[in-house]
Design brief:
Blueprint lengths: L10 E6 L3 H11 L5 E7 L6 H5 L11 H9 L4 E5 L9 H7 L2 E4 L5 E2 L12 E3 H8 L16 E5 L3 H11 L2 H4 L6 H8 L5 E5 L11 H7 L5 E4 L9 H8 L4 H15 L7 E6 L2 E7 L6 E10 L6 E12 L2 E4 L3 E2 L17 E2 L2 E3 L5 E7 L2 H4 L7 H16 L10 H11 L7 H15 L12 H6 L5
The structure holds flavin-adenine dinucleotide (FAD) and NADP nicotinamide-adenine-dinucleotide phosphate (NAP).
Flavin-adenine dinucleotide binds next to helix 1, strand 2, helix 2, helix 6 and helix 13.
Length: about 450
């Protein structure tokens, strides 16, 4: 038998997920010294994960990594099997029979919960839903958000919350020539939102916004950023935090908040209020959210380990629409160990480990499903490369028998009636989206239903 990783017996790897971590892992595998075949399995017909369905439409530059990914998709020995969900169309066990190695790069597809009364009331939503809706994700295409409400609360002070605030704050004219889904543009055109309240459970020094994203919130044409100067008084531990050289992002954020506080109001059509040291304690209303009870917090703990502790003081914020933007969480797949507390596949150096901490032969992870839901697009490159390094080091220990790979898998999927989407198929859909966008001055008009995408390929 030929050695594994040589041309007669290439290493067959299934990469599950086509977001940044999947593409960076594929690139590292294909550029290795071994003979490798990479088949990327993606549950949607469209690749690129959160770069397509997360990154905000008004930040087109941040979608540029797609050009890199489409070049990786054209590399020899790379194949895409789009429209195939692992766990639904094919099991992990079946994949293991077809591939030497499975590398999970399936992201963090669900959201965390606040665990407060009223959280599930109508008009209380996750940011995940809203973001996926305005970005045309097929699973969220038919969601509705009551944008007739004048006051909206956004819980959390990270960059996703910043995206949500910007989309709510901007006029449709500012969004019209982006790749925002047209259903979202139409709904936002009728928006009556006037006040956006962005709620942080800790202080301004602990907000997770990056400087550029925060600064942008003070430069919106249609919206005043409002900060109460009293909220910017820092406790001693927070002062220590912002004085630490390595914590320059926090120091700059505090400076930006000070600029917001000093900025004269322009009486813009919309206002964005920053709240600090407040936690939602309950959502209340008759049949829908009408108000949020906010507990006032104090910070406790050493610098960099400060946590928010609720005090007895509360206030009521009247708001008719809520977006919880407190982070994402991974989804388990049958046949793969899952750490439910962290919402990740547990790993050691990228190797998936079982409950006893032992590596499960042939299973690896990269990206958000490995690290949890933090880090920008670029963070996933080093992460995926380090997983691939561990994977390649393990090849001598793998059973060297040849595996059927994509040919066998395609036969199995065809027998189940699954129409797979190849790289060429995707480029066809992609070109049609771009052509649809052109008359409207948009970079593309996305197809927002799986059936529409398959119709582009002649599937009825
Ligand atoms: C709303 C939002 C906006 C963001 N904006 C920016 C930004 O502007 N700039 C920036 O640098 N970073 C941004 N980020 C962060 C960045 O998107 C992430 O770091 C990155 O996408 C994580 O990559 P990933 O490959 O791990 O996961 P993902 O990008 O989520 O990709 C996972 C892929 O796996 C697929 N998948 C899931 N389950 C299965 C399954 N069972 N079978 C087959 N396929 C499956 C999914 O459909 C998806 O395509 C943003 C994140 C969010 C949430
Ligand atoms: N333009 C960009 O570059 C861009 C855009 C979007 C996203 N991203 C990246 O994607 C990643 C995910 O972003 P994210 O905004 O989802 O996550 P994040 O940066 O971790 O922010 C989550 C926010 O939710 C708060 N939170 C968590 N649990 C809470 C609770 N129970 N009650 C109240 N508040 C709670 C956090 O506060 P604590 O700090 O107190 O925990 C924090 O303010 C980040 O790395 C981000 O930078 C980048």
């Amino acid at each position: 038998m030929s050695a594994l990783g040589t041309e007669p017996n290439p290493l067959r790897v299934a990469v599950i997920g086509s977001g940044p971590s999947g593409f960076y892992a594929a690139e590292a595998l294909l550029k290795s010294d071994l003979a490798v075949r990479v088949d990327m399995i993606e549950r949607l017909p469209a690749p690129y994960g959160l770069v397509r369905y997360g990154v905000a439409p008004d930040h087109p530059k941040l979608k540029e990594p797609i050009m890199v990914y489409s070049a990786i998709a054209r590399l020899p020995h790379f194949s895409l099997l789009g429209n195939v969900a692992v766990g639904r169309d094919v099991s992990v066990e079946e994949l293991r029979a077809h591939y030497h190695v499975l590398l999970f790069a399936c992201g963090a597809e669900t959201d965390r919960h606040l665990g407060i009364p009223g959280e599930e009331l109508p008009s209380s939503h996750t940011a995940t839903e809203f973001v996926a809706w305005y970005n045309g994700h097929p699973d969220y295409r038919d969601r509705g958000f009551d944008l007739t409400q004048e006051a909206v609360a956004v819980v959390g002070q990270g960059n996703v919350a910043a995206d949500v605030c910007r989309i709510l704050a901007k006029s449709v004219d500012e969004l019209r020539t982006t790749d925002i889904a047209s259903h979202a543009l139409d709904a936002l055109a009728a928006s009556r939102v006037r006040e956006i309240h962005v709620i942080g459970r800790r202080g301004p020094a602990q907000a997770k916004f990056t400087n550029k994203e925060l600064k942008e919130l003070g430069e919106l044409a249609n919206c005043d950023a409002v900060v109460d100067p009293k909220d910017l008084e820092l406790d001693p531990a927070s002062r220590t935090e912002v004085e630490a050289k390595a914590n320059f992002v926090a120091a700059k954020n505090v400076e930006i908040f000070r600029q917001f506080a000093a900025q004269p109001a322009r009486n813009a059509a919309r206002r964005l209020f920053f709240h600090f040291r407040k936690s939602p304690a309950a959502l209340a209303g008759t049949g829908r959210v009408e108000q949020m009870v906010l507990a006032h917090n104090r910070l406790e703990g050493e610098p960099f380990k400060q946590v928010a502790r609720e005090t007895a003081q509360t206030e009521v914020l009247r708001c008719g629409l809520v977006f919880r933007s407190i982070g994402y969480s991974g989804v388990p797949i049958r046949g793969v160990p899952f750490d439910a507390r962290r919402g990740v596949f547990p790993t050691q150096d990228g190797r998936i480990v079982d409950g006893a901490g032992a590596a499960v032969a042939g299973l690896y992870a990269a990206g958000w499903i490995k690290r949890g839901p933090t880090g920008i697009i670029g963070t996933n490159r080093a992460d995926a490369v380090s997983t691939v390094k561990a994977l390649l080091a393990d090849v001598p220990q793998l059973a060297p028998e040849a595996k059927p790979g994509i040919d066998g898998l395609k036969t199995l999927l065809a027998a189940r009636g699954v129409r797979t989407v190849s790289v060429e198929d995707w480029f066809k859909i992609d070109a049609l989206e771009v052509a649809r966008g052109e008359p409207h001055g948009k970079p593309r008009e996305k197809f927002t239903r799986v059936a529409e995408m398959l119709q582009c390929l002649g599937v009825q």
